[in-house]
Amino acid sequence: MLCRICKSKGKRTKASIYIRHHRLALCKEHFIEWFEKQTAKTIKEFNMFSKDEKVLIAVSGGKDSLSLWYALHRLGYKTYGFHISLGIEGWEYSKKSLDICKKFSERIERPLIIFDIKDEFGYSIEEIAKGSGRKDVCSVCGTFKRYLMNKICKEQGFKVVATGHNLDDESALLLSNTIRWEIGYLGRQHPVLPEKNGFARKVKPFVFFTEKEIVSYAILNKIEYLETGCPNAKEATSILYKRSLAMLEHEMPGTKLRFYKEFLKKARPIFEKELKEHLELNECKICKMPTTASICSVCRTLERLKINVKSR
């Protein structure tokens, strides 16, 4: 199969990737060019951030976040990496993740901000979840990550934080929330969550790319990334939703993209109206971060942990 763009110019260059739902075959050079143009288009379409703003990029060491950092860096944005070391021991996951992020930071010569949960709180994320009586490590991890991203933004003057969530992630989340009719989550699911009431703007520039496309971008740009997923994510329900959508995508290319884009265009505005116009936020009595309760969920979790440790 030949690259479509090269072919249009009278060249017979072999394609490196074929994107089924776009019916698009591209060589290495033109795929990278297409990928970065699409990223810039998404940023512009949703008014995510400008070239004048500092962009904090949450990097885990995986393909999505490192590819996002690389693409935004090449597009000329003021990028800063932010890595949370979770202290996960399985497969030396956290150590490998941190090492990869450090090497990548050195490669593109951009700063990397590191936050070590165990150094800061005295416990790893697994120990926090178990010690506070929470069985689901993933939900605790997600809560702490969101909290820390916002905390770093507030402390270091960032207005926007970007994450590497992709089309597979977003369509699986949408299917999950639709099956349960989670109106609040459906109303908030969007490529941009605006900065409001002390919360930094959250953006997802890769929401229209599949995992395959991002992997291809990473490989073609020789980006070293952690190929093994988090050991705690083995039982995550999102895996089942991704498999279900992958089956549909195989039979009907473009299903995931249509599902997500049509939701944003037609359904989300309806669910958004169901949300309260103004969320009443307070300042957490312990950490001073914004919260809907008197004490935020992170501080409550840490308080339960202290109580359980003392009672042993």
Automatic annotation (TrEMBL):
SUPFAM superfamilies membership: Adenine nucleotide alpha hydrolases-like
Domain (tRNA(Ile)-lysidine/2-thiocytidine synthase N-terminal): residue spans on this chain: 54-227
UniProt superkingdom: Bacteria
Cofactors that this protein relies on: Mg(2+); [4Fe-4S] cluster
Keyword Hydrolase: no
Molecular function in Gene Ontology: 4 iron, 4 sulfur cluster binding; ATP binding; metal ion binding; transferase activity; tRNA binding
Entry keywords, A to Z: 4Fe-4S, ATP-binding, Iron, Iron-sulfur, Magnesium, Metal-binding, Nucleotide-binding, Transferase, Zinc
Alphabetized InterPro entries for the sequence: Rossmann-like_a/b/a_fold, TilS/TtcA_N, tRNA_thiolation_TtcA_Ctu1, TtuA-like_LIM_N, UPF0021_CS
Binding site for ATP: 58-60, 64, 84, 164, 169
2-thiouridine synthetase TtuA-like N-terminal LIM domain location: 3-32
One GO CC annotation: cytosolic tRNA wobble base thiouridylase complex
Biological process annotations from GO: tRNA wobble position uridine thiolation
This protein's name: PP-loop domain protein
Organism: Desulfurobacterium thermolithotrophum (strain DSM 11699 / BSA)
